[in-house]
């Protein structure tokens, strides 16, 4: 018998260590298995090789003229390979990715070939996706829900739900997101957010994936996982191109190809393990135990002298010619060439469901809005209490109508100015990656905003209407309410139109500032019996508030309303006869339906304007491109002054 108690514990320690070792080996084997057989469920796609030559990109910079950001660079990225675009900050990595992915093309020149043929941008977009540096995700939904919506939008109803769910499970498992499946996107860690961005794009398996600095901001472990994942995605036959900022030596070795950019020029292209011999060749010997990735960036940023950069450029030109890629013409039916868009209805229904879910998740915000409308109902009702039946306060009642219009301009507009610019950024990305068209999004968005707006309007109006003593006749109330609804929808549309073009900061200024003249011109000439000159009348009717005011006043006082009571303490009630008020306001003709139709028309026109502005945001035409260039020029000019 063993009398030494230590021997027993030592033995169990040994067993523990062995078990741990076994566990690690099992995990490594599993990782290798995942890397070699990634994503068995995804649709097979044709391999895509990208070649570009003499790519130049210039941007105008105010008085100085223009700035050359890419200086005629060439290269090729092959399918089945993970390529890193490296370089010091400001070298032009993001710019190169933007141009190759087709995200930017104004100011770019040069030749880009896809599988040996000139790139057709429309066709290419159907085969590629671009994951940008900052991760933007739809708020208020969980990882699994985000994946399901992505699958519904990209795969449509042709693919069965069961199949979609197993594809999603496989992707989440491979990207180690299964544990975060039920986490809301806003609460994900940086690494999880990045992996979710990749997971969302993998749903329809695009053959080309561009990523801008996918590892920046991630911790070491997340970085390793992210690069392993990208490598396994590439090994599955896709072309994966990512820009990266000084990877560790072990991560650097995982890239199949490296493309180094410095000051807009290529200073190295080739295998990752060819960097050190290349640098030795130009006279910059990488010290032992030094990270070659750090070293190549240091040399290319000119830290050891500009002559090395010069030599690197010359050597690339002389010794690294771009050989045409030997390509077997694969005409196999198992490959689906382009990724088709799903039907209009599939997109519309998925987007509507997503908007409704987000609305439901964000219900506290709705409760806040309801409370605010009730609060305002009490305040406005209290200020104008019982003035509707009082013949001595008819003019105050005009003030009440105006106040309602102001409420229905600002309350719907301000939240939209805050939210919409962010939503447009998301729309831009999802649309660029071809998740959906603008049409279904626009209709889903428009339809989803109308019911809450009407609901909130009803809460406010059903308080103030009786409190302020407005006529309790159903048809008058219906007219009054409907004019208010139309005006609140216009207020919201103004917010959407501004938010679709301007940033939050600019929009928050422009929105309220531009609504002031709208209010002022609507009441010009009131109280003055002289008719207005034509030009002032035209200006007056250019404001929708004028139609709103007329509609409300006529609903309350028009169409033969009887004379109002004059309180005994008043000697004389000048406007106790409703017609007297209508006369002084210039509204004695019954123009309710004209105003109603005008407001409906303005709503429709504004919706068309929003659609047009969003379209220009997504795909600017020549005029908008020119405006953007002029804007950039003016900004540059002002900042130089
Ligand atoms: P990085 O390699 O860090 O991704 P970028 O491609 O983002 O670099 O930018 C390359 C260079 O172009 C930088 O010097 C940047 O300042 C400049 N640049 C990019 N966009 C603009 C712009 N709109 N106006 C002026 N300079 C710009
Ligand atoms: Mg960048």
UniProtKB/TrEMBL annotation:
It is a multi-pass membrane protein. GO terms for molecular function: ABC-type transporter activity; ATP binding; ATP hydrolysis activity. The keyword tRNA-binding does not apply. The keyword Zinc-finger does not apply. InterPro entries: AAA+_ATPase, ABC2_TM, ABC_transporter-like_ATP-bd, ABC_transporter-like_CS, ABCG_transporters, P-loop_NTPase. The chain crosses the membrane at residues 366-389, 395-420, 441-465, 477-498, 596-614. Keywords: ATP-binding, Membrane, Nucleotide-binding, Transmembrane, Transmembrane helix, Transport. It is found in: Membrane. It holds the Pfam family ABC2_membrane. CDD domains: ABCG_EPDR (cd03213). PROSITE patterns: ABC_TRANSPORTER_1, ABC_TRANSPORTER_2. Its main location: membrane. Residues 50-288 form the ABC transporter domain. One of its GO terms (cellular component) is plasma membrane. Belongs to the ABC transporter superfamily. ABCG family. Eye pigment precursor importer (TC 3.A.1.204) subfamily. This is ATP-binding cassette sub-family G member 1. It comes from Neodiprion lecontei (Redheaded pine sawfly).
């Amino acid at each position: 018998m063993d009398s030494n108690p230590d021997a027993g514990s030592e033995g169990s320690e040994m067993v523990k260590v062995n078990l741990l070792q076994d566990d690690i080996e099992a995990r490594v084997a599993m990782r290798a298995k995942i890397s070699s057989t990634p994503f068995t469920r995804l649709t097979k796609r044709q391999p895509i090789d990208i070649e570009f030559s003499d790519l130049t990109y210039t941007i105008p910079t105010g008085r100085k003229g223009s700035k050359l950001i890419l200086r005629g660079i060439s290269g090729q990225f092959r399918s089945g390979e993970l390529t890193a675009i490296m370089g010091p900050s400001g070298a032009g990595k993001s710019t190169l990715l933007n141009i190759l992915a087709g995200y930017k093309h104004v100011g770019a020149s040069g030749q880009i070939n896809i599988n040996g043929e000139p790139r057709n941008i429309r066709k290419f977009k159907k085969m590629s996706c671009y994951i940008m540096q900052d991760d933007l995700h739809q708020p208020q939904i969980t990882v699994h829900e985000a994946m399901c919506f992505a699958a519904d939008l990209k795969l449509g109803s042709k693919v069965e739900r069961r199949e979609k769910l197993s594809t999603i499970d496989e992707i989440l498992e491979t990207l180690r997101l299964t544990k975060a499946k039920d986490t809301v996107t806003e609460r994900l860690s940086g690494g999880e957010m990045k992996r979710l961005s990749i997971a969302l794009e993998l749903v329809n398996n695009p053959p080309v994936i561009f990523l801008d600095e996918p590892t920046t901001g991630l911790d070491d472990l997340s970085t390793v996982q992210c690069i392993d994942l990208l490598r396994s995605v590439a090994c599955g036959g896709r072309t994966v191109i990512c820009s990266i900022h000084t990877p560790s030596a072990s991560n650097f070795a995982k890239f199949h190809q490296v493309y180094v950019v410095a000051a807009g020029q290529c200073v190295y292209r080739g295998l990752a393990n060819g960097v050190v011999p290349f640098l030795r060749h130009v006279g910059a010997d990488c010290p032992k135990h030094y990270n070659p990735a750090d070293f190549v960036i240091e040399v290319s940023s000119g830290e050891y002298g500009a002559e090395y950069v010069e030599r690197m450029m010359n050597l690339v030109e002389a010794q690294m010619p771009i050989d045409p890629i030997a390509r077997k013409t694969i005409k196999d039916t198992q490959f689906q060439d382009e990724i088709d868009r799903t039907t209009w209805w599939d997109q519309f229904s998925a987007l509507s469901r997503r908007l409704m879910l987000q609305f439901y998740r964000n219900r506290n915000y709705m409760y806040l809005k309801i409370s605010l409308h009730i609060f305002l109902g009490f305040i406005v009702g209290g200020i104008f209490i019982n003035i509707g039946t009082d013949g001595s306060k008819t003019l105050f009642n005009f003030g009440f109508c105006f106040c309602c219009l102001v409420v229905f301009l600002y309350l719907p507009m301000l939240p939209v100015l805050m939210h919409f610019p962010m939503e447009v950024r998301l729309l831009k990305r999802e649309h660029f990656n071809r998740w959906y068209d603008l049409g279904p999004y626009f209709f889903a968005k428009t339809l989803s905003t109308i019911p809450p707006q009407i609901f909130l309007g009803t809460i406010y109006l059903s308080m103030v209407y009786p409190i302020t003593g407005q006529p309790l006749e159903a048809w008058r109330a219906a007219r009054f309410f409907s004019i208010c609804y139309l005006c609140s929808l216009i207020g919201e549309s103004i917010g959407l139109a501004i938010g679709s073009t301007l940033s939050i900061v600019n929009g928050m200024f422009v929105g309220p500032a531009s609504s002031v003249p709208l209010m002022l011109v609507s009441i010009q000439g009131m109280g003055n019996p002289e008719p207005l000159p034509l030009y002032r009348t035209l200006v007056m009717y250019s404001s929708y508030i004028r139609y709103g005011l007329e509609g409300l006043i006529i609903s309350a006082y028009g169409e033969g309303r009887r004379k109002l009571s004059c309180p005994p303490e008043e000697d004389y009630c000048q406007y106790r006869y409703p017609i007297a008020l209508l006369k002084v306001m210039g509204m004695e003709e019954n123009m309710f339906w004209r105003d109603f139709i005008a407001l409906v028309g303005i709503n429709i026109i504004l919706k068309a304007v929003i659609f047009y502005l969003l379209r220009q945001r997504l795909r600017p035409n020549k005029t908008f491109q020119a405006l953007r260039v002029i804007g950039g020029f003016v900004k540059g000019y002002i900042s130089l002054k």
